[in-house]
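Pilot study result, target chain (246 residues):
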Amino acid sequence: MIFYFTGTGNSKYIAEKIAAGTHDRIADIADCVRNAHYSFELNDGEPIGFVVPVYFFGIPMIVAEFLQKLEASSSYTYAVLNCGETTGNAEGMLRRIFPVQAMFGVMAVNNYNPMYQMANTAQAKWQLQSTAQEIDKIISHINNRSTGSFNKIQGPLPTLATLALYPMYKHGRKTRKFSVNDNCTGCGLCERICPRRAIALQDGKPAWIIPQCELCLGCLNRCPAQAINYGQSASKGRYVNPLTKL
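Predicted structure:
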């Protein structure tokens, strides 16, 4: 079984492609946490895989929570970290909670628009083609039950990078930085998809009702009216993976 967490579709796309190549099934970590579903019975020989985005050179808080509570065992376990540039020591962070036997890293389309300009259609298409090629290599390793670290995109000084920047995510993630403009139609999509149930419609507009969220930016990027912003994201564009259905 492959467990994934996604805000804009990158991890879901990777999980689906791996599942197709390994004849496996997938499960959404956000749904599991919402439903307090942490115990799983696996088929004989079925591996456990995780497809996880990298946030500030670490793993999302909801993923760490899920890994700590997960009740499942397999003779083969692996994880796939996906990021816009480098993973830092997200590998070490994940392994300390759930010691997988194989670790992979793959670059996906960067979607952190509070800081970066989003790729245009041509750039995103090129990156997705490169991502697909890397996924095919990962599928081969999984089918061969390869072990060890195959993550070649940790970047320089990965441990230092994580130590320096991950606390900004862990102690940050402030929902007060979200804003909604007049384009909002009150469709409620943001409320439905928020993995932390941080959003509630009030007077037909989204309001963030807890001080911190997961900062997956699914609400921002998937808003059909592009009405949601976070900090300086208004001019940076939007991104949703076009190769999966969210």
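One observation from the pilot: The radius of gyration is 18 Å. A full batch analysis is planned for the follow-on phase.
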